[in-house]
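JOB MANIFEST
job_type = single_chain_structure
chain_count = 1
residues = 297
[input]
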Amino acid sequence: MHIGLIGLGKMGYNMRERLRSKGIEVTGYDRNPEVTDVASLDELIAAIPAPRVVWIMVPAGKVTDEVITELGGKLSQGDLVIDGGNTKFSSDQEHSEALAAKGISFLDCGVSGGVWGLENGYGLMVGGAEADVERVMPVFDALRPEGAREESFVHVGETGAGHYAKMVHNGIEYGLMQAYAEGYELLEAKDIIKDVPGTFRAWQKGTVVRSWLLDLLVKALEEDPKLSNIGAYIEDSGEGRWTVEQAIANEVAAPAITAALFARFSSRQEDAPSLKMVAALRNQFGGHAVRPPRTSP
């Protein structure tokens, strides 16, 4: 199978390499000449055999809108576009309808795995027609971790369902990171605790709070035990906000996710240890940039 991949940032680059390692032929296009396989979108389309499959991994919002509009003017009837970015689910229907008018199919795919996906594989949540999902199942199987498909892949439902599921996933992620981070600050604050990194390390096996995020927390503390090189300024990608908006719209109480989102806002005014830990965790799993401390350590 041969697909096109638009957007070779950290995530897209790693996805291209994983697909190739699993026997999927990939032609990638990016404006960065150091990573792109072709010089233009026209060259990308010419390189892929019809009916084409084009996977988009670009920033959500205006950039995604522009790429989909451009593809709609260049692709042919029977081609398929997959949006693997963090697009807001409500935009998927618009993208799907615009492409369908030209005979082009569309899938939305929530992708989780961050910078570790190349080695470990990605969790995938897909929205769209069953026939389109089956058509590109070899691609999904190449991207996901080894093992039972249902443990890392789900066809969630109709158009928009994949990105909605990923939105909720990220909202949960906000809450989990905030809980670990508050625990970190509580341990740091008590003088009888002499080994904070060791405490978290001892939770990695056997305890009910063990997780991959906990493993990354331990890794962050091994690299910088006092988080002295990290400022407590935390960006939010938008998905936490959308999750809270949907909680309100559907009258679902989501106090943990909402509080975690608000904590990110407060991080922009103070340098609390718990918020430094959230910043460290985002850097560990997603490669998100961190800021230096507001004052030198």
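[summary]
The longest strand covers residues 105-112.
The longest helix spans residues 161-189.
exit_status = 0
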